Amino acid sequence: MLSICRINSVHSFATLSKEFSRGLGPQYIPRPKFVVEITPLAYIPGARIEKYLGNLNFFFIRETTSIRENGGLSGFVHNFVAEVLAIVRAHVAALGGNAMVSYFMTELALLHNPHKNQGQCLINVGGDVVLIVHPSSIPDDAQMGS
After folding, report:
1. Distance spanning both ends of the chain, measured CA to CA
2. Cα–Cα dist 56/100, whole Å
3. In the CATH scheme, what is the homologous superfamily, with its name and number, of domain 37-145?
């Protein structure tokens, strides 16, 4: 838990930084990052598929009337694909998975009208949601028993 400390007139920044360096201030304990892996392969290299959780298939549509302001057509498509991947990762995590295998992007239709500063994009993505286990995260007792 990260706590926030106020600096008031009694404590100066130098005093607080000395307290933090001696371990007297709030402590931050780093947690391992939760990563959702996405791959077009049917497996994750170096990992074992523990459980199949389902299939996802999405169609996303994005329209804009500010192509020039968003970095042109390439910036618009780049931002859209990044948001699509973030949404897919969120759905995988919501289903209790930590990976998507057999990922596909079958359709990407792009319409551009530069005279009106407009653009539309349609993307179809999908894949299989799975729960994977890396060998380093399996306890030694469980590895010896198998």
Report:
1. 37
2. 9
3. Hypothetical protein apc22750. Chain B (3.30.110.70)
Domain ranges of the chain: 37-145
What pTM, to 2 d.p., does this model score? 0.70
Phi, psi of 58 (to 5 degrees): -125, 145
Q: φ, ψ for residue 138 (rounded to 5)?
A: -85, 130
| 110-146 pLDDT, tens digit each | 998 888 989 999 999 999 999 999 887 656 555 555 5
For β-strands 99-113 and 37-38, DSSP reports them as parallel
Burial label, 119 (beta-carbon count in 10 A; 0-12, 13-18, 19+): buried
- 67, 117 contact by CB (below 8 A): yes
Instruction: Answer yes or no: are the C-beta atoms of 146 and 139 closer than 8 Å.
Output: no
Average pLDDT over the chain reads 81
